[in-house]
Design brief:
The complex is a heterodimer.
Chain A (H helix, E strand, L loop, with lengths): L8 E5 L4 E6 L8 E7 L6 E6 L2 E4 L4 E4 L5 E6 L8 E8 L16 E6 L1
Parallel strand pairs in A: 1-9
Antiparallel strand pairs in A: 2-7, 3-4, 3-8, 5-6, 6-7, 8-9
Chain B lengths: L3 E4 L2 E4 L5 E7 L5 E8 L3 E10 L2 E4 L7 E3 L5 E6 L8 E8 L9 E2 L3 E5 L1
The chains are: A mainly beta, B mainly beta.
Chain lengths: 114, 114
C-alpha cells in the first residue's frame, strides 16, 4: 500500500497561489491520487483526483509527473476560507481485497492570512 | 439531496455504556465506511461494508461492531464504551471501492466517554 508524505503545515496570504506537494514513492499501477479538504467540525470533502499529467477543475489543479511518485495540489488565489487541512490519498483500485485501506495521513494544515 | 447524514452529532457516555451511531446515505452507494479521527492521527478506518448484508474490518476494529441491514444505512455499535474511544467518528460512502471513486463524508459524531 502506498504511503503518502505531506508537509504538516503551510502558511499563505490571501490572493497567493498555494502548492502542496505529496510524496508517494510506492504508488502502484492501479492507484489514483485523490485530494480531500477538511474544515473544522466537518467531514473531509473531495477536491480533485487524477491518475497522471494534469487535472483541473473549478477549485484546484493537480499536477502529476510522469513517474507518479509525487503530486502537487495547486490552489489559485487563496482566500481566508481556504484555511483547512488538505489530505493526499493514494487509492488502491481493489480496495476490497486490500482490506479497505485508504490511508489518510495527518494532512497539511493550510493557514491563509489576510 | 442530503448526501451522508450522521446521528447523533454529539454524545457523552459513561464508561461501560453502549450506544449505536447511525449513518444514512441517499446516493445509492454500495460501499460505506466508518472512520475515527483523533488529534494528530488523521482518519483511521474502523469497519467498512461493500454492500447490503456484508461488513469487514478496517485498521482499528477492536471494541466496535457494525451492521448493514439496509443498503442506505450503516450502523456502528460500541458495546462497552471505554475512554480510549473518545473521538470524532465519520461515516463515508462511495459508489464502489475502486480508487477512482471518491468517498463522500458526513459531518461527524463527536463522542466523549467519561
Amino acid at each position: 500500500l502506498a504511503k503518502t508524505t505531506q508537509p504538516i503545515s503551510m502558511d499563505s496570504y490571501e490572493g497567493q497561489e498555494v502548492n502542496i506537494t505529496c510524496s508517494h514513492n510506492n504508488i502502484a499501477t492501479n492507484d489514483y491520487i485523490t485530494w480531500y479538504q477538511q474544515f473544522p467540525s466537518q467531514g473531509p470533502r473531495f477536491i480533485i483526483q487524477g491518475y497522471k499529467t494534469k487535472v483541473t477543475n473549478e477549485v484546484a489543479s493537480l499536477f502529476i509527473p510522469a513517474d507518479r511518485k509525487s503530486s502537487t495540489l495547486s490552489l489559485p488565489r487563496v482566500s481566508l476560507s481556504d484555511t483547512a487541512v488538505y489530505y493526499c490519498l493514494v487509492g488502491d483500485s481493489m480496495i476490497y481485497n486490500q482490506g479497505g485501506k485508504l490511508i489518510f495521513g495527518q494532512g497539511t494544515e493550510l493557514s491563509v492570512k489576510p | 439531496n442530503a448526501g451522508v447524514t450522521q446521528t447523533p452529532k454529539f454524545r457523552v457516555l459513561k464508561t461501560g455504556q453502549s450506544m449505536t451511531l447511525l449513518c444514512a446515505q441517499d446516493m445509492n452507494h454500495e460501499y460505506m465506511y466508518w472512520y475515527r479521527q483523533d488529534p494528530g492521527m488523521g482518519l483511521r478506518l474502523i469497519h467498512y461494508s461493500v454492500g447490503e448484508g456484508t461488513t469487514a474490518k478496517g485498521e482499528v476494529p477492536d471494541g466496535y461492531n457494525v451492521s448493514r441491514l439496509k443498503k442506505q444505512n450503516f450502523l456502528l455499535g460500541l458495546e462497552s464504551a471505554a475512554p480510549s474511544q473518545t473521538s470524532v467518528y465519520f461515516c463515508a460512502s462511495s459508489y464502489s471501492g475502486r480508487g477512482n471513486q471518491p468517498q463522500h463524508f458526513g459531518d461527524g459524531t463527536r463522542l466523549s466517554i467519561l
